[in-house]
């Protein structure tokens, strides 16, 4: 942690700033995996809604 002291004796503490890294665009196989995960998630949500309507 970085600390500076002003002329009147007050201390200012500054938080540690991490190094900035930029995200990279996902590869083709990662995009396909995201598509599969989205399809499975949509299927689960749809099935849950249909079951809730069927039970009620």
Describe this structure in words.
It is a single chain. This protein has one helix at about 30-55; strands at about 1-5, 10-15. It contains one helix and two strands, in the order ββα. About 50% of the residues lie in helices and about 15% in strands. The radius of gyration is 25 Å and the shape is elongated. The longest helix has 28 residues, at about 30-55. It has about 55 residues and is an alpha+beta fold. The model has no long low-confidence stretch (mean pLDDT about 90). It has a two-stranded antiparallel ribbon. It starts with a strand and ends with a helix. It has a domain at about 25-55. A hairpin with a 5-residue loop joins β1 (about 1-5) and β2.
Task: Kindly list the characteristics that best describe this protein.
alpha+beta, elongated, two-stranded antiparallel ribbon, single chain, 56 residues
Gap from first CA to last CA: 57 Å
Mean pLDDT, to the nearest integer, reads 90
Task: Please state the overall shape, judged from the principal axes of the Cα atoms.
Answer: elongated
Give the strand content: 5-15%
- Taking Cα atoms only, what radius of gyration do you get, to the nearest Å? 25 Å
Q: What is the spatial order of strands in the main beta sheet?
A: 1-2
The major sheet is characterized as: 2 strands, antiparallel
- Which class of secondary structure composition applies to the elements? alpha+beta
SSE pattern, N- to C-terminal: EEH
Q: Percent range for helical residues?
A: 40-55%
* Number of E-state strands: 2
């Amino acid at each position: 942690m970085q600390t500076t002291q002003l002329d009147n004796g007050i201390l200012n503490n500054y938080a540690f700033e991490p190094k900035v890294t930029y995200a990279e665009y996902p590869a083709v196989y990662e995009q396909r995996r995201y598509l599969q995960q989205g399809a499975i998630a949509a299927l689960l949500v749809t099935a849950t809604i249909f079951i809730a309507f069927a039970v009620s």
